[in-house]
Amino acid sequence: MTITISAVILAGGLGRRMGGVDKGLQFWRGKPLIETVYQRLHRQIERISINANRNQEIYARFGVPVFSDRLAGFQGPLSGILTALERATTDYVLFVPCDCPNFPLNLLEKLKSAVEFSQISLAYAHDGERDHPTFCLVSTQLKNALADYLAGGERRMLYFMQMHGAVAVDFSTEKQGFININNLADLNSP
Questions:
Q1: Predicted confidence (pLDDT) per residue in 16-52, tens digit
Q2: Of 114, 120, 117, 162, the residue nearest 141 (C-alpha)
Q3: Where are the beta strands (DSSP E) in 48-116?
Q4: Report field, pTM of the whole predicted structure over 0.90
């Protein structure tokens, strides 16, 4: 059985470590982070949306659907993931954060292989040392469980994922791809 997949770039955060700026719109190597992430993701999948809680008109210039979290108050990445799962018309949604411009070009391929092989609802990236739960492939069938989890006041991504049998997929050979832009100084990094 072939699964259908769409993708969402998570750009809905407050950018606290960057002084409150909209991370996805910050320039890195001459263009906004979101543009680099979009171009890299578009090499792997056609159907892409952007989850943004601010500056939606700017994000919309990429010609893809832009949506905000259904839950108010910038409640973290799981809030954007929930809204994406509720909106999706595919079996699974691939998620990537807007602040990691060099993520692996085989991200979708490896996560998809893991969910198909293990017949699971959730897979996320692991670089050999650290988990990267915002790089994940999630079944839309988890939307009700995630809504309940968030309604209960929880926000921990890995805990939710582990509750639902998630598999950590080994990306140790692509470890450098998970370096993210955390502060304004990182924007000037090579």
A1: 665 567 888 988 889 999 999 999 999 999 999 999 9
A2: 120
A3: 48-51, 66-67, 92-97
A4: yes
Listed as own residue / partner, the contacts of 62-65 with beta carbons closer than 8 Å and 24 or more positions apart are 62/34, 62/35, 62/38, 64/38
Which contacts of 140-146 are long-range, i.e. CB under 8 A and separated by 24 or more positions?
A: 140/85, 140/88, 140/90, 140/91, 140/92, 140/93, 142/85, 143/82, 143/85, 143/86, 146/78, 146/81, 146/82, 146/85
Closest alpha carbon to 173 in 129, 115, 123: 129
Contact in structure between 178 and 132 (CB atoms under 8 Å): yes
CA–centroid distance for 136 within its chain:
7
**Closest of 62, 54, 65 to residue 22, by C-alpha:** 54
Q: How far apart are CA 189 and CA 104, in angstroms?
A: 18
Cα separation, 87 vs 89, whole angstroms: 7
How do strand 48-51 and strand 5-10 relate by DSSP bridges? parallel
What backbone phi and psi angles, to 5 degrees, belong to 177? Answer: -70, -10
